[in-house]
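ok trying again, last paste got cut off:
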Amino acid sequence: MDSFELNKIIGAILLVALLVIGLGKVSNLVFYVNKPEKSNYKLELDSETVDAKIDEKPVEKEIVDIAALMSMGDLAHGEKVFKKCAACHSIKSGGGNKIGPALYNVVGRKIGALSDYKYSSALSEYEKNWSFQELNGFLLKPKDWIKGTKMAYAGLRKERDRASVILYLNKYSDNPLPLP
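nice, full thing came through this time. structure:
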């Protein structure tokens, strides 16, 4: 290929670029849009709503009638629902940790207490035990119940599912807690 052919190719590329830029400029002249000076969309907020959002306090953890909730539970149903948990947690005595900690003897145990598992700092610093109430709140929405937990699970929305899983977890213990 001689230099004359190369010049024609470069010239064609430049011509196309010039046409694209030129067409853009010409279309801006032909299709002029008159932009308003101020927006026609108004967002009206009363100052009380804005102040309430600014001064919003952390949401209180809801207290549930745990006795009524636990009466909804069923061990067979809990075993079925726990299969979702079994991908990350073991439940058998002597079962080791998986992605999540072993859950044998979990009901009544201090939260974040297994020495051979690396908990998130949120769980390690949480100064409570896994009571029926704590398990219910955590299983509902783990990330909302204990802010900063690493557990990437959306939670169990149905009360019967949560109650059944808690009953199932309580069964797998050396000393199951008495039901409320």
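cool. Residues 3-54 form one domain. The chain is about 45% helix and 0% strand.
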